[in-house]
Amino acid sequence: MAEPIKIGLLGMGVVGTGVLENLAENQEKLTNQIGRSLTVTKAFVRPSKEKERLAEKFDLTLVYEVEEILQDSEIAIVIETMGTIEPAKAYISASLKAGKHVVTANKDLLATHGTELIELAAENQVNLYYEASVAGGIPILRTLATSFAGDNISKVLGIVNGTTNFMLTKMVQEQRTYQDTLDEATALGFAESDPTNDVDGIDAAYKMVILSKFAFGMTITMDQMTIRGIRGLSAEDVAVAGKLGYAVKLIGSAIKINDSIHTEVGPVLVPKNHPLAAVQNEYNAVFVESSGIGESMYYGPGAGGRPTGTSIVADLAAIAQEIENGTTGRPFSPYQQELKLTPKDQIINSYFFSLEMPDHSGQFLKLAEIFTKLDAGFEQVSQAKGDGEKARVVIITHPISETTYAEIQNQIQLKTKFKFISSMKVMEEK
Ligand code: HSE
């Protein structure tokens, strides 16, 4: 039997431990497929009794200086599971420069410095794989890079943040508050170290940057996207949407319009008969529309040690196979095109508006005038009693452009004293 492929682990928290458990459980199968075994020899951690116990269990050496991994010439692959930008970026860069392959789950880093790191990997003829960075346990990136190689993708819609999906599910099913559900998601370990990234849509946006690259070959930056989270979402609007036949979900969308793309994150009304509406709790799903396959959806856990660890081990196996074949150095997603963003007047959608207005005659006419002048038709209108003398009005429009949508908001503010409660995109019926 050939020598084992030696691996260094940076960080041994929930995900790092998941990797070790998966490797231990599947060592025989992996060796059978690759012809060599995969062994984590060293883990870089902060000193603790718990880490010492894990080191003994998985037969590895703990190191407290990262150089002991970066300068170990026997280590061929480095796994980074520390998260956030620094020092992960410095450690990954140093590993690539030292000729080591890198596997990471770090979406923040790939979405913001991916181009630089991918170039660094290519310069050093090594692999940089990051299947676990998007939707944890769902094997979506390799699927897009390989199984869709001969297909033309037009749309990628994702529920790619488990925390917010968990919150929205519990708020509706158990009538619980925003804060209460966020506290539970944090306690269960789904939320980021800074949950602002979850609730404000940042975490989902990082994942959409990566998905856009794999689906369309285009590298979009965070500041080129509209990013809205679920903070301040009214429980009443979620309930009204439910009565109208929709589930409110935080959706990341990347859509190809002609030869340009539009990528964004925000709360969306999803028709209850759409497969994405059935995705509950902390689960993730990525829905793809393409000319060859048609519609397909990839569903599974978006976080957690074992699921995320499984994606990391799949990357390890792929690298090990390439080491054996002498084919290392290709990017994870070789598809590359110049970025072209869709102009706002070509982005067409139906919208949900929720407003509060005085409950007396003539008020609704003001609203109808604004919409009519902008050629925006009503598809559904509903009115309920609001606070005091107020009426709560909800409108779903026929499809309008993003430019018209912005103008409607502008005109409501200029020409009325109505209180703007919320507006959201409405996904088309299946
Ligand atoms: N905070 C993330 C989520 C973890 O809730 O989906 C996985 O990236």
Automatic annotation (TrEMBL):
Catalytic reaction(s) noted: L-homoserine + NADP(+) = L-aspartate 4-semialdehyde + NADPH + H(+)
Pathway named in the protein's UniProt entry: Amino-acid biosynthesis; L-threonine biosynthesis; L-threonine from L-aspartate: step 3/5; Amino-acid biosynthesis; L-methionine biosynthesis via de novo pathway; L-homoserine from L-aspartate: step 3/3
Aspartate/homoserine dehydrogenase NAD-binding domain mapped to chain residues: 11-131
Residues annotated as domain Homoserine dehydrogenase catalytic: 139-316
Segment forming the signal sequence: none
Top EC category: oxidoreductase
InterPro entries for the chain: Asp/hSer_DH_NAD-bd, HDH, HDH_cat, HDH_CS
Cited Pfam families: Homoserine_dh (PF00742), NAD_binding_3 (PF03447)
Keywords on record: Amino-acid biosynthesis, Methionine biosynthesis, NADP, Oxidoreductase, Threonine biosynthesis
EC numbers, comma separated: 1.1.1.3
Matches recorded under PANTHER family: HOMOSERINE DEHYDROGENASE
Family from the record: Belongs to the homoserine dehydrogenase family.
Protein's recorded name: Homoserine dehydrogenase
Organism name: Enterococcus alishanensis
